[in-house]
Amino acid sequence: MQKNSITGVENDSQPQLYNYNKIWTKSFIVAVIAVMILGIISLFTGVYDIRGQEDGMEMFFITRVPRTAALMLTGAAMAMAGLVMQLITQNRLVEPTTTGTIEWAGLGLLIVYLVFPAPTLALRMTGAILFSFIGTMIFFLFLRRVKLRSSLIVPIIGLMLGAVISAVSTFIGLLFQATQSIENWFVGSFAAVQIGRYEYLWLIVLVTILIFMYANRLTLAGLGEDVATSLGVNYNRLVLFATGLIAIGVGIVAAVIGNLPFLGLIVPNIVSMFRGDDLRSNLPWVCVIGMGTIMVCDIISRTIIMPFEVPVSLILGTVGAVVFIAIILRRRKPRRLRGR
């Protein structure tokens, strides 16, 4: 059985390359229509009565449209980041939340706040992207140097690393009286999204295009360093490039929205269960289901205790934790059966 060149562990489910050349299938069209319906529901969900007030249409374009667009872009970004991470590490349990990438982005935001008293969104985004890249590379380098016998240890290491970085951020925040910045970041919410405060999220479209252009090479990287190199792929350069794309997506989301846990874990695993691991054919599905997932969670967060709003990170964290446990149990079941 081939061993993972990064984690050093045997992978029970090697990437299976399926030829789904036809993207616009009936099921995909149904999924797109469902997301469009969720988008319409999102546009008309909220405490403010946009149909009964004189400035209703103005508020509709100032708040509702940007929020729905931000939901779609954010859902696609975090889902894609999780998908690329899982391919590179050959581990279904890896995503920005379970590798410490999110916590590194938060540390980057905190450092920016300390260096620049009133940082612009561009500065915050730059700090989050830079630290996300550094943190993700540290995680990958650690996995390449340490051979692990179980793939379940990989996310545990990432969670432990994230906890350490989170503790460092909390200590620095307390030391320099900047805890409010950390608290706002940990509570990922779309409540403050409005026109003029979300436009950087459109850079995610560029990230999506780049991932699609390099999809075949990233899929080969998912086969392991030895196989990818034998097929003419510069593995190290590709991992560095993929890490940069992940950092850009996660950093932008962290700066604009905040912490959104487990989205990159839920969506890629659902898609891979039915479609295998071909990045090019899975990418549209991952984007669409990522959009739908976060919109459902956001609609629930806005309506569960109306007129108040629950941070969407709480809904995502709850759902994601349940899915995370379910995936772990699903991976362990075949081993028990083989031992009988």
UniProtKB/TrEMBL annotation:
<feature type="transmembrane region" description="Helical">
    <location>
        <begin position="283"/>
        <end position="305"/>
    </location>
</feature>
<dbReference type="InterPro" id="IPR000522">
    <property type="entry name" value="ABC_transptr_permease_BtuC"/>
</dbReference>
<feature type="transmembrane region" description="Helical">
    <location>
        <begin position="311"/>
        <end position="329"/>
    </location>
</feature>
<dbReference type="Pfam" id="PF01032">
    <property type="entry name" value="FecCD"/>
</dbReference>
<keyword id="KW-0812">Transmembrane</keyword>
<protein>
    <submittedName>
        <fullName>ABC transporter permease</fullName>
    </submittedName>
</protein>
<feature type="transmembrane region" description="Helical">
    <location>
        <begin position="100"/>
        <end position="116"/>
    </location>
</feature>
<comment type="similarity">
    <text>Belongs to the binding-protein-dependent transport system permease family. FecCD subfamily.</text>
</comment>
<keyword id="KW-1133">Transmembrane helix</keyword>
<keyword id="KW-1003">Cell membrane</keyword>
<feature type="transmembrane region" description="Helical">
    <location>
        <begin position="238"/>
        <end position="271"/>
    </location>
</feature>
<feature type="transmembrane region" description="Helical">
    <location>
        <begin position="152"/>
        <end position="179"/>
    </location>
</feature>
<feature type="transmembrane region" description="Helical">
    <location>
        <begin position="28"/>
        <end position="48"/>
    </location>
</feature>
<feature type="transmembrane region" description="Helical">
    <location>
        <begin position="69"/>
        <end position="88"/>
    </location>
</feature>
<keyword id="KW-0472">Membrane</keyword>
<dbReference type="InterPro" id="IPR037294">
    <property type="entry name" value="ABC_BtuC-like"/>
</dbReference>
<feature type="transmembrane region" description="Helical">
    <location>
        <begin position="200"/>
        <end position="218"/>
    </location>
</feature>
<feature type="transmembrane region" description="Helical">
    <location>
        <begin position="128"/>
        <end position="146"/>
    </location>
</feature>
<keyword id="KW-0813">Transport</keyword>
